[in-house]
Design goal:
Blueprint: H1 3-22, E1 78-82, H2 98-110, H3 121-133, H4 144-153, E2 159-164, H5 167-181, E3 185-189, E4 194-204, E5 214-221, E6 240-242, H6 244-248, E7 267-272
Antiparallel strand pairs: 1-4, 2-7, 3-4, 3-7, 4-5, 5-6
Helix pairs in contact: 2-3, 2-4, 3-4
Protein name: Peptidase C39-like domain-containing protein
Keywords: Signal
Region (Disordered): 52-74
């Protein structure tokens, strides 16, 4: 009987060994939910970064940035331009030669090198004859058309005769032409009977920046200075700065005349034109 129990014990020991070998190893620290444990091989390799997570489809979009506010409009500032230098003024040597003297002054205002001032009486006589021959009716001397044509022919142009309906627009037109060309403007004074030169101006606003600007002062040269007129008033000193109100007492609308019907009425300018 002693041999049988011994064999039974040996057989039980072998069975216990087999059952142990077939049971999977379980980590006692594994949670009861049974979810798998991440193995060490799932960690990113050294030297490599993990990819950024893809944003969720429900992520809120970034709102657009508001546009910057518009820049405030430019405000007109005081502006001044004057072509005059000492020595530019030339008097008319007879009471008929105002156009010729104005042509001489235009040359001096344009030629700022002081290389050859036009001022002689003999030259003024020649220029008057030229302007008179090119005027529509030479019986009454030189008119604005002859004035503009001689300015162009002697190399100071091109110039043209321009009529403007309103006084304010006339001043703007003259000031803008001086600013754009750097050349003076001829003013047809005394309702078409006299010639002055506008050599500069003052304004609120630079004509190059503002389509509309206000002319506040006009620089003038009257070749009849210092004599003036009993009807129209005294001649201002050369390079005087007149207000629009002061200028308007002598710069008036040209009236129609039977001996010069080809000239327009209105405020007349002998205007420099951009080449």
């Amino acid at each position: 009987m002693t041999g049988a129990p011994a064999r039974l014990l040996a057989w039980l020991a072998v069975m216990a060994t087999l059952l142990t070998a077939c049971t999977p190893a379980v980590d006692l620290a594994e949670p009861a939910s049974g979810q798998p444990i991440t193995s060490a091989s799932a960690a990113p390799a050294a030297g490599h970064l993990e990819a950024a997570p893809t944003p969720s489809a429900t992520q809120a979009p970034v709102p657009p940035q508001p546009a910057p506010p518009p820049a405030p409009p430019a405000v007109p500032q005081a502006f001044a331009l004057n072509l005059y230098q000492d020595g530019d003024f030339v008097p008319q040597y007879t009471f008929d030669w105002c156009v010729a003297a104005s042509i001489q002054m235009a040359h001096n205002l344009i030629d700022d090198t002081r290389g050859g001032t036009w001022a002689s009486s003999a030259q003024q006589s020649e220029l008057w004859e030229m302007a008179r021959a090119r005027s529509s009716n030479s019986f009454n001397g030189a008119n604005p058309r002859g004035w503009a044509q001689v300015l162009t022919e002697v190399g100071l142009g091109p110039y043209s005769v321009v009529s403007v309906a309103t006084y304010e627009d006339t001043l703007q037109t003259a000031a803008r032409a001086i600013a754009e060309t750097g050349r003076p403007v001829g003013l047809v004074m005394w309702s078409g009977r006299h010639a002055w030169v506008m050599s500069g101006f003052e304004s609120m606003g630079d004509p190059a920046q503002f389509p509309e600007f206000q002319v506040t002062g006009i620089r003038v040269l009257d070749p009849l200075y210092p004599h003036g007129s009993g009807q129209w008033g005294p001649s201002p000193e050369p390079n005087s700065l007149l207000t629009p109100e002061q200028l308007s007492s002598q710069f008036v609308v040209r009236e129609p005349r039977r001996w010069s019907t080809d000239l327009p009425t209105g405020y007349l300018l002998v205007l420099p034109v951009a080449a």
